[in-house]
Amino acid sequence: MGLFQYRTIFPLRFICRYASTTRLQVFQNAVQITDPQRIRNVGIIAHIDAGKTTTVERMLYYAGFIRSMGNVDDGNTTMDYMEQERERGITITSAAITIPWNKHRLNLIDTPGHVDFTIEVERSLRVLDGAVTILDASAGVETQSLTVWRQANRYHIPRIIYINKMDKPTANLSMCLESIRQKFAIEPLLLHTPLGYGKQFTGFLDLLNETIISSDKRSNSALSDLLTKDRAKLIEKLADIDDKIAELLLFNDKPISSNQLTEAICRLMVNDQRYVPVLVGSSLKNLGVQTLLDAIVNYLPTARVIPGTSATNVGTLMYIFKTIHDRQKQPLSFARIYAGSVKRRMGLTNARTNDKEQVNKVFLPFADNMEDVDEIRAGSIAVLSGFKEASSGDILVANKKPNLTSHLHDLKQQYTFLPDPGLEAPTPVFFCTIETYSESGQKQLDIALKNIKREDPSLRVRVDEQTGQTILLGMGELHIDIIRDRLKREYGLETYLGPLNVNYRETPRKSNQQTIVWNSTINERHATISITMSIDPIVVEDKTIVSFSEVKLVRTEEQIFEHLRKDHLDAINHGVRLALSSGCVKGAEVINVQVKLHDIQLTGSISPALYSAAASDCIRACLRHAECILLQPMMRVELVCAADRTQPVLEDLARRHSQIIDVQQGTGNGLQESMSTIISRTPLAELIGYSSTLRTLTSGQADFTLAIDGYEPVSNH
């Protein structure tokens, strides 16, 4: 075959690069790699059921970490270690693992693909240097694929696209590439030519490395000719977008090497993310996973760190992106180390609170197993025990300086890859009451929910002031059901959930200003507070919501608020939040509103509680005159059904007050000709229990996915 290599992959005889090594040796191999140039921090992101967990399971096998491969359907994969994940066959929480590959350390994070757990993807992306986006070859870019892609765009993360499941009967590479162009708005660089589709898929041509990878033992010259032809097309495409390849093609008589093409792709990954490498394979059939591991090493960026000279003022610097509660090790914090190193018994300072924290132990993550180590250096991901209050979004440093906040700001300006402190969780769309079956269990419930809330920032917990009931606010039915299941399994708590309700919002349509006078008499001491406040609607164009942050002081010549202390202002803000937490239309939270304090007059001694109560009453008075309206969460629905059931499904969506965005039919969507895709925008309230209705309408021949698509006023119905 001349210059070409032919690698035969036998699906039933797996090739493991470290077949003779033990798990301990794999761990030791990974620990020894500390050079950031040889570290890759990579996330696996995709729509649900695209094959993320199956792909990672194969990666672990080929790296020698496991001796046999688990299966999602059997509930025995390494990364889906929670009981709920194994029972339901889906990923619920992001899981991290460290493996060696080709003398590099790969820190992999397998993220969920379900819309209810988007927060797991969001916080993982903050600390990643690259990502692998996995697509189902029969579906192309799906709803959640687009969501996580846009999340990665916000952090400017270089990506590889891996088109999985090429062995499915409805696999359609042309459709996938076109959906990548249209929905991701990028140009795919196809590095592989598949050999067959569906049951006939036996492998692919690796165009860069001039290798034929196939499970078919037979070889023929036609494949070599096809490889030469497709490789030439790839080189021409790269020459159009990379000057160095263009020069080599025009002025160099020597063939362009694989290394030169790899360097060109790396330049594009860093400098021009409009072009993304695309690989193909079938992880279930063990075709393409080793090539994907090689691509992670060759194309994705090295671990980004702050050089020692710039980090001397803070020493060690880390960002906590995830916290879990382990019964043996107590709270465990997942941290990305950006400068210095982290060791046992090390003292740190939380930049947000200025509180001291101490590291008890340092672990290297291996899914639900943690390997104890002495030290982890910059560029890698560590799991730390011992933190008391530090939570997701906190930045911790070793050396506390008087101007720490200013110094971190300067570092962020110089090293833009540093994550911003804090973590903004998505707005919950459902809520329900939760109760224990005995009064004695309420205290346990409060502790358990506090722990789970620390792990999961998208969960909100509040207490109804009138009834005293505990209320859970979550991202969806599955999210809240998982919380209830965890309370039972992990904390031994039997709980009762009230009816699931849509988490509506309210917003004012007009501005309003009110003055409230409060009189108080305590122990014959009289006090009066007169407060003038106003509310103004905030106009948003992208259907997002803006929650209240703090009161804006309107200073004038007559009122400069010189006697308003910080604790008084904090009390006023607390009162405003209390008033905005329950609007006057449906008792829902009021959003998209700006609050101003115009004047405050006092006589006598005023307690902070009185400041809070007066501010709360004043804002409630403003709301009553501001013509507030109710807002409802809208969902983008992508539905695939049998073509002959399209009309009944459309009629049912119309009854649910849906806006039909698009109806697609035929193989142009990677579907069989007998299938249709319907895309709509539907009020969330109309989708409760929709699965059962859709199953009845289509005799089980349909599936749908949801994604939050902003809020809009509730119609008259």
From TrEMBL:
CDD domains reported in the protein's UniProt record: EF-G (cd01886), EFG_III (cd16262), EFG_mtEFG_C (cd03713)
GO biological-process terms attached to the record: mitochondrial translation; ribosome disassembly
Domain of life: Eukaryota
Every Tr-type G domain range: 37-304
Pfam families given in the database record: EF-G_D2, EFG_C, EFG_III, EFG_IV, GTP_EFTU
Keywords, sorted A to Z: GTP-binding, Mitochondrion, Nucleotide-binding, Protein biosynthesis
Record flagged with keyword Nuclease: no
Protein name as annotated: Tr-type G domain-containing protein
